[in-house]
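Title: [Solved] non-specific serine/threonine protein kinase 3D structure

Original question kept below for reference.
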Amino acid sequence: MDLRVGRKYRIGRKIGSGSFGDIYLGVNIITGEEVAIKLENIATKHPQLHYESRIYRTLGGGVGIPFVRWMGTECDYNAMVIDLLGPSLEDLFNYCGRKFSFKTVLLLADQLISRLEYIHAKCYLHRDIKPDNFLMGIGRRGSVVYVIDFGLAKKYREPRSRVHIPYKENKNLTGTARYASVNTHLGIEQSRRDDLESLAYVLIYFCRGSLPWQGLKAATKRQKYDRIMEKKLSCSSESLTRGLPTEFAHYLEYTRHLRFEDKPDYNFLRRMFRELFIREEYRYDYVFDWTIFKFQHTIEAQKDDQSKQSQLPNQNNNNQNNNNQINQNNNQNNNQINQNNIIQNNILLPNAPKNQVLNTLPKQSPLEPDNQVGFPRKMIIPDGQKGQIVYFKSPNRAFIPLATENGASRKIDQ
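Solution (posted by the thread starter after getting help):
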């Protein structure tokens, strides 16, 4: 059966679920472009999809915010068509053996802090910060982290008056208990500090592989939430981040000590993690753990194929000699192709010295997608040594590596 929304979007298989509604793979029947389609039954008790689409449109134009293609009602469903994105950070976390390297966590932290700063600047709280709600882009934007699922988002101040919502207590827990802030567990109205505290738990989860309050058993959901809250209250920043760089404890302490209406110092938090990144001598090459895993798995698959081919019986010596010559030529060609692909896609070599890459710059900076608002195009800066990176700051303080004519390395403040 050919199911469509907005006349030109065909609905395919289910690919996920959000806080309100299911998400399906879709395709634009005119252009062939793939999209994501979120459906919500109109009979649901508290419909949220129209509200969520308005938030997406308010946030539209920001880096890491999906674009809404169409919103409307078809038959018994509200439908929202948005950009198709890649896997979630939770999916990639599982793919990488449920632990990320410090480099990957710091690369993610830099983008995620900027995403929350942008959302907060638009007067909204996300209120459901978790790895499932951060997705990687696809294609040229494959290194950009996107934020999705604004079904629980809330305006914390009026854009014109700038008046903050009032402090309240006895609120029900909104969001995901595993990553909820302590104040959210205590029933206090959420504000900007709570999104950032939730992000702290996400980053620690990525570093450690789990959080101390996972797997707690209880008879009811309310009792389970209480047990999680008690465990969080008993965990100091130092104990929760033991074995991690001190910056993670400092980040958590900072967020826990913010007052209800305080504006967080996003620059301070980003700078703290960037200094750790530089101290560890990492590179802003956007090579994440899953990039390396994929490369290694590809190499292993190629070896398996070659091994199977070498075990095939040959009909005669002439065929064997011919096959050997063909295989040798193919291997040489494949090695050349693989080397070129590695150089173009900036893959970290598994056996190379620490942080060595064949090419220090992706084809396009992931923080510079199609000249979006606030992000200048690539610049060409002459002279310098080949293979280095130019860094400069964009208006949202994200580092953008820029190509140079001869690979010159400079640091430019805008």
